Amino acid sequence: VIWSVDRASGIAALLLSSLSIVAGLLQARRSRLLKPADRFPLHEALGIAVVVAIALHTASYAVDGFFKAGVVGALVPFASPYRPLAVALGQIAAYGLVGLSVTFYVRRRIGTPRWRAAHRLIPVFWGLAVVHGVTAGSDATQPWFLVSALLPVGAALVMLAARAEDRASSDRRPTRSGSARGPVAPTRTAPGASPAGR
Amino acid sequence: MAAHDDSQVVLMFLADTLGMDRQSRVRTIRTRVAIGATALLAAALGAVDGWGKAEATKTVTTPVAVQQPFEQTQVDQTQVEQTQVEQTAPAPMTTRQS
Fold first, then answer.
1. Is residue B95 a contact partner of residue B50, using CB atoms and an 8 Å limit?
2. DSSP H helices in chain A
3. Which residues are within 8 A (CB) of A39 and not within 5 positions of it... i.e. 6 or more apart?
4. How does pLDDT run across A80-137, given as a tens digit for each residue?
5. CB–CB contacts below 8 A, A to B
6. pLDDT (average), residues B16-21
7. Is 0.85 exceeded by the ipTM?
8. Which residues of chain B lie closer than 8 angstroms to A139, CB-CB?
């Protein structure tokens, strides 16, 4: 049962993090997919769900009787007895995703620009999580997994590519009055969030 | 003064109403995400566990006893038993090797 929970929570974490990235990137785009007021709460709720799924994935891996990874093997990168490199990618991804997500709640203390710069690193750790899922996951070659992961992971990749394109075109565009960003990057202030928020 | 008070009351009422709407909307979204995430976890659990067991059952129930000449029956029976022991190993062990 624990082994099944481990695999299922890992898959859930991967899919939820992909959806969270999509919801986060939707905040900066004009889209009819979601009401603007719903985007930030959805992004935040998905982020919390990702943290819970990662916690479950890590805990079930630590107590799994087959791998005997233990707390150290589950928490310390490269200490896992099972595929150390592949598991380490997941561990680093987990630290990045959880750590950078939590910084939202201390953004006033660390400063919004610093928080925003850190928040933009999340897709890098999400990419590590995808690689971890493919290299360490024993269901990675199963058709049902590939089909179910294709849509959210693909959507996140498309959204990230669109965002990169927006930023590139914004950088190429001459700015007025010294503004670094033109209208291509609309406000990322969440409806209802503090002015210092996203 | 009275008009001023009335407008303040209206503004406070609107702010409260909009705030309540937003709070209830956020609560609704969080609840839906929690339900969705739980359903996703359950579906993944069913996929990795239920379908895996179905495949393992198929493997175990594959007929292994075959008609053999009388001279080879003892040896074959031992092999069959050994095969059955290997095949009736816990399903996760089989899956983990993949």
1. no
2. 2-26, 36-63, 70-75, 84-102, 107-110, 112-119, 122-136, 143-172
3. A23, A26, A27, A190, A191
4. 888 899 999 999 999 999 999 989 899 889 999 999 999 999 999 999 999 999 998 8
5. 72
6. 65
7. no
8. 47-48
The answer to whether the CB atoms of B95 and A138 lie below 8 A apart is yes
Nearest CA in chain B to A44: B30
Neighbours of B50 (CB within 10 A): 12
Q: Is A133:A11 a contact under the CB 8 Å cutoff?
A: yes
Q: How far apart are CA A11 and CA A6, in angstroms?
A: 9
With 0.90 as the threshold, say if the pTM is over it: no
Determine the distance in angstroms separating the CA of B7 from the nearest CA of chain A, rounded to an integer.
Answer: 23
pLDDT at residue B58 tops 60 = no
Contacts 24+ apart (CB under 8 A), A59-67: A60/A2, A60/A3, A60/A5, A60/A6, A60/A9, A61/A6, A63/A2, A64/A2, A64/A3, A64/A6, A65/A2, A66/A3, A66/B92, A66/B93, A66/B96
A-chain residues near B47 (CB < 8 A)? 8, 11, 139, 142, 144-145, 148
Q: Which residue of B has its CA nearest to A139?
A: B48
Chain A residues with beta carbon closer than 8 angstroms to that of B44 = 7-9, 11-12
Comparing A32-41, A140-149, B85-94, the range with the smallest average pLDDT is: B85-94
Write b or e for each residue in A61-80: b if 16 or more Cβ atoms lie within 10 A of its Cβ, otherwise e: bbbbeebebbeebbbeeebb
